[in-house]
UniProtKB/TrEMBL annotation:
Catalytic activity of the protein: N(2)-succinyl-L-ornithine + carbamoyl phosphate = N(2)-succinyl-L-citrulline + phosphate + H(+)
General function of this protein: Catalyzes the transfer of the carbamoyl group from carbamoyl phosphate to the delta-amino group of N(2)-succinyl-L-ornithine to produce N(2)-succinyl-L-citrulline. Is essential for arginine biosynthesis.
Native species: Ferruginibacter yonginensis
HAMAP family linked to this entry: SOTCase (MF_02235)
Aspartate/ornithine carbamoyltransferase carbamoyl-P binding domain mapped to chain residues: 2-160
EC number, UniProt record: 2.1.3.11
GO molecular function, one term: N-acetylornithine carbamoyltransferase activity
Protein name: N-succinylornithine carbamoyltransferase
Amino acid sequence: MKHFISVHDVTNVNDMVQLAMHYKQHPFIDQHLGANKRIGLLFLNPSLRTRLSTQIAASNLGMEAIVFNIDKDGWALEFEEGAIMSGHTVEHIKDAAPILGQYFDILCIRAFPALQNKQDDYSEQVMKAFMQYAAVPIVSLESATLHPLQSLTDVLTIKEHWHKPTKPKVVLTWAPHIKALPQCVANSFSQWMTHWGEAEFVIAHPEDYALDATFTKSATITHHQDEALQNADFVYVKNWSTYHDYGKIYSNDPSWMLTEQKLQLTNQAKVMHCLPVRRNIELSDEILDSNASLVNTQAGNRVWAAQAVLSTILKTL
Ligand code: CP
């Protein structure tokens, strides 16, 4: 694995999940792998789980990790080819990335979408520029369209909680939110679920909230949440803004918030969310504080997913 940007960088999802589970049992077994190696964690946006879990994963593998809030502490970066830099940007990515590539053996980047222009965001300009100019492996800590470390964690969490020979029914349901959020987590979860192929995967969202079809191939899609929840084994709750009329809030319908009553429709489903979550907007207290909630397990599993990805890259260096 050269980079980790999407599910397409993983040779076999189940093998990667197995490796993450192995690290959960034996966190320090590969401490030698990262000896004398340095990893840079570059954040253009805030983070709690991704930042800390990736640092811990790197430390478990014996690497030195340096976190850089590049949006606050670095120079404003320019990404446009041929830009005349007379505005607020100070340093071109063509100049910054090769230096970072000299300082670090692996570079991890978090770069959210601006949600202003679909073409700009969906071209993954920032992640691609780092891959082009840094000359070291790049790991996405959440990009403009995808959040692969979260999705690997989510597959791991589902596998840990499913012990039947049949496929689980996994429902991704849209939830209300007060802000326009990226489609990254929903895109990425859909991409991993459909690629993994070991679940019956259903997406429920209000009309006008269709995701980019690139990521939802083979998923069943409905606008009827109650119908989707019937006999579900796992319910993944997430808000996203509109994709087609890009980055808008068309609905804030509170009836889409998952409640204990709605959960009665399911097969005693476990409830997932990537966090952070707006309580009693996206998900009710009664669910988040119940035994049905897997959100803390998911967040804990972020360490093992990151460790599996980093160790796989380290073995190629
Ligand atoms: N789920 C997730 O990526 O959390 P953070 O934004 O806190 O890193």
